[in-house]
User: Fold Response regulator transcription factor from Algoriphagus oliviformis.
Amino acid sequence: MKILLVDDHRILLDGLRFLLQSGEEEAEVSTASSVEEAWDMLRKDPPELVISDISVPKVGGIAFAKQVREHYPLIKVIFLSMHEQPHLVREALATGAEGYVLKKSAHEELLKAVKEVMGGALYFSNEIHKILVQRLRFPEDEKILSQREKEVLNLIFEELSNREIGEQLHISERTVETHRKNIYQKTKTNSLVGLLKFALENNLVSGLN
Amino acid sequence: MKILLVDDHRILLDGLRFLLQSGEEEAEVSTASSVEEAWDMLRKDPPELVISDISVPKVGGIAFAKQVREHYPLIKVIFLSMHEQPHLVREALATGAEGYVLKKSAHEELLKAVKEVMGGALYFSNEIHKILVQRLRFPEDEKILSQREKEVLNLIFEELSNREIGEQLHISERTVETHRKNIYQKTKTNSLVGLLKFALENNLVSGLN
DNA sequence: AATGATATCCGTGCTGGTGGGTATTTTTTA
DNA sequence: TAAAAAATACCCACCAGCACGGATATCATT
Assistant:
């Protein structure tokens, strides 16, 4: 069984390779520490399974998973991430990934996830399960930002003024203000600071990290 | 040689244990996923070396290192962290740690660090070295916020208005404004967003993480 | 004694963001 | 194809934040 591991922390990659190869299955594990590298390797020699981090510099694990799903729908995908924020988890699972394991889990759990997923099932850590259930019970929290709103949010965190954002997006400053209002409503925040905290906690902005 | 590993990601711990034990040295590796747990284990059976993450929930790896240094000055400490922000690195090394290895490094580098440190030397990843050199060349960047300014910054981060901050600290709103001005100058930022980004990058605020 | 950093206080006026609306067009979804 | 969501745009009133002026007191270091 061929597995491709993607994570920007080499040390984790090296450790994981050991772990996976020590599992009873004869696993052939290759590793990549960036999405670009991973994509190259995947095209040259498609694996059966991709295990990817989410917070990978630049492109990000979620975008990578989408790409994989689109071009190689048969390849299974498991996310291995430290993040357990509802919004992020939801976005990740919306790519159609077969698994989501938290980094704080024991390694046995990852091995189990691999086995389950390769057997055709899905596997999620307990915490992720809870989020899915929570989602059923409180669907009103579902409201996620639209694409445009995300763009505006990111430009806000580029320290641009509303006028500048308008110019950048070729829309009126008034429209930017409207977007801003809607963002505040959807995120239930009412100050720039609160918004920033929310955005960081939910990985909605691409600065930092 | 007894080694204590501290990190809140179990999977990383499991992988690292493999890596360290596969190194030629006969290493006896124990692991802890919280500072409290680590401290218990350390007291019961003191290791020669502690390898700790920095962003451990609640207490944090830096505080833990200080504690270890104070009560067991002979135990060597190596930080294994993803963070490479100058302020944070400086704070970490100020504890007197013998090493600082980035998680994005290859595992060979960690083994090398262990060997060097146990041999009585220090070991830092290249990126960390650069920060130390940079520090020598541009000491003017050292200017850190005063205690009062840090308090104000934290309250800003609590989403308080200047008026509320004034009440909280029993000072005039004007004074808060002055502090704010000085903070902006020192951090070379000129917007709330920029300031918050700076604060987060340099761990000046106690929210989040 | 002089210096620099810290901390405190005050007034004024401008501007950008906030919050209250309303409304049209396009796109997506059911 | 009808309904819903997203994106666009505008008006107006309000005020917090901030720039730009000032000012004084304390303390450690030089």
Notes: The mean pLDDT of chain A is 87. The longest strand of chain A covers residues 76-81. DSSP finds ten helices and six strands in chain A. Chain A touches chain B at residues 8-12, 14-16, 18-19, 22, 33, 80, 82, 101, 103-107, 110, 156-157, 159, 191-194, 196-197, 200-201, 207-208 (CB under 8 Å).
